[in-house]
Amino acid sequence: IMAYYGKQELPGSWTEDEFTTKGKVSFRALGAGQSPRGSRNEAIRPDVLLVDDFDTDEDTKNPDIIQKRWDWWENALYPTRSISEPTLVIFCGNIIAKDCCVVRAGEMADSWDIVNIRDKNGFSTWPEKNSEEDIDRTLSKISTKAAQGEYFNNPISEGEVFENISYGKIPPLSKFKFLVVYGDPAPGESKGKKGKSFKTVSLCGKLGTRLYVIKTFLAQALNAEFIDWYVRMLDFVGGKTNVYCYMENNKLQDPFFQQVFKPLVAKVRREQKIALFIRGDEEKKTDKATRIEANLEPLNREGNLILNEAERDNPHMKELEDQFKLFTLTMRYPADGPDAVEGANRIIDELIRRIEPPVFRSRKDLRKRNKKRL
Description:
By secondary structure, this protein is an alpha/beta fold. It is about 35% helix and about 15% strand. α8 packs across α10 (about 335-355). The mean pLDDT is about 90.
């Protein structure tokens, strides 16, 4: 205070939690739950209410405590204002839970600014203080879940839909009748920034009821790099089995598919002498979140969704694991990886139905085969 405004202390009117400046402006500090009643400077009631870090991690675990905190704000602190005079109310704090006092205040506020460590384009919101290198280093030391809650105001409950993620050894690729490489190109071109959609390509195969995610690429990337991921998948398989390559291609994506990706694929075929042919997946899809939950959660719950143990330490596979763990129906964190796995699973099932059509037997044949049938 002295550095900005000079000496302000009035003898006898300056304590640790309450003081009045030489200009007769009064300040009072209170802890949550303390009695604010009677707060005034002579006849003047408070005209600024500043609430700072009102929520705690422990409080948010108990809805009753959050309600108790909110009741104190509504019934004790807020009514200290004057009805006839304008009052400025400021809530400062992180969104550390889906239901907390900052969220409740924000929903009724005239203005609510949510400032994260990075903006929607993935750049530092305060570059003069926080460089990209400093942010990267800080976030690298904590989990994605912790980073989203503390630095992006995005509290996520890990395992809300996909409670456990299974890793396992992948059978020899020659055991699979075919594999599917499924890609989601995501809009735009960006590389290395967090927060935008991820481009992804996943190599998947199925034996019986088990869906194996054999290898994945999942990151912000350029279009040429995205196409190169297909080439690397084919090199990885090395002719051990047949491979079908697909790319998500709805009506909105089709112009980009025709004008950008097809020429890129043709260029790769010509320059690298590789038989790369990518089919557009034009099937009209249902809601992304419910589709992922409906088609992959039962597989995962039964232990039939297996991520490649040999790829566990690969940053791309780690990102896929995070996207599964942090998946919610509101999709508060990107889910491009699970979406591509769901697409691969659907294509595999469709190909199996075409290659191995169902066998229908007569009742007479069934009676012969079933010795216990009466």
